[in-house]
Amino acid sequence: MSSASRFERLALPHLEAAFNLAFWLARSKPDAEDIVQEAYVRALRGFDGFRGEDIKPWLLAIVRNVAYRWLSNRKRAHNIISLDESLAGSTASESLADHIASDEPSVEQLLVGAVERDYVLRGLAELPPAFREVIVLREIEGLAYREIADVTGTPIGTVMSRLARGRSELRTVLKKLIEKDEPNAV
Amino acid sequence: MQCERARNLLSAYIDGELEGDERRAVAAHIETCRSCAALVNDYRSIGAMVAGAGREPAPHGLALRVRENLARANRDELRKPEPKPIGWFDRWPSFRRSVLSHAGPALAASLVSVMATWWVLTAGTTSAELQREVLSAHVRALLQDNAVQVATSDQHTVKPWFAGRVDFSPDVKDLAGEGFPLVGGRLDYIGGRRVGALVYKRRLHTIDVFIWPEKGSSEAPPQLITLNGYNVLTWHQKDLAYWAISDINAGELRELQSLL
Question: E strands, B59-181, where?
Fold first, then answer.
């Protein structure tokens, strides 16, 4: 089997995961498609250098790199806030404990009757990309920390702390969204 | 375990990514701390919500388009010329045995030199050379972030700007309504002459349309070429040659051509 058809056989099954990650980084379906197209061509060209056993983290790492390059190009074009700036200004820089009081209603209680998917999409969209991507990779793709670290090119400890901060921030954002939309729920 | 320390570990605890002692310590803390237990609950239900929301569905036909694109990329790889300038000799094995075993390297070198001279003498006018120049002009503009010298979406600004800078007057249309917003224009130098370049956008992609006077039939269908992953479409219109180049797909490039 030629290297190109072997690549297709291994990589195409992960197309939906690739598209999902690209979508969550670029937050636009047309851009996500372009990112996936470019990433697959790059992956094919670099396929000879792939030595691992599992192609998914390797492939998603390429998707991620292409997506971040798009984000920085888009930022140059439209002055969109960069990853670093958005991390620095994020509400998660406050201590995790600040938002928590045990007699607050839980997110679960607040969400009774709410359209879950809509809130998830809006909540995730408000997170900085560095938090959004680890949550998507963990909760939607079900990757282990080791695999997420391979995708993001960061140490496992960083994955762990970004997930902790990301979850805390997502919880805060969701609460705000829900309380704003449904003041009676509180 | 202190609450603050536990809070930082709750997320990894939920994911089953803590080792023995740490895992047991966090579990014991949750037993006694209501607010940490509530947090674990929240994180778990938010995680289930995110997982339940699932992947953003890929657009219809994406897999097919990716496969086409991969096939194209693969063909482009294969089409790259082999670095084997003396392949011609392979057809004369006896000649090669008798002569080349002694004089091979010198002969090969002189043949390469003859071929190179012939190439230099003739290539200046070939379309391959022109294609390379168009590609270089486009990539250079992208690299240097100077895609436009007159930046405006107003076609009535771009057209007069060309007057006096080039000896022809291209039609300038803003096609924002059709998804090709006009970014502006610039001058470039291709084929030993000044040419005009109209710069359009398609989503985040930049499209250069190079224009210069050249006799040619407006009736002939546009030619599509692929160069280093860029699509190039060339056609003639009113004694002007048009070269549109971009990394958008060929269909979109044809769409732009039909609008210009």
Answer: 150-151
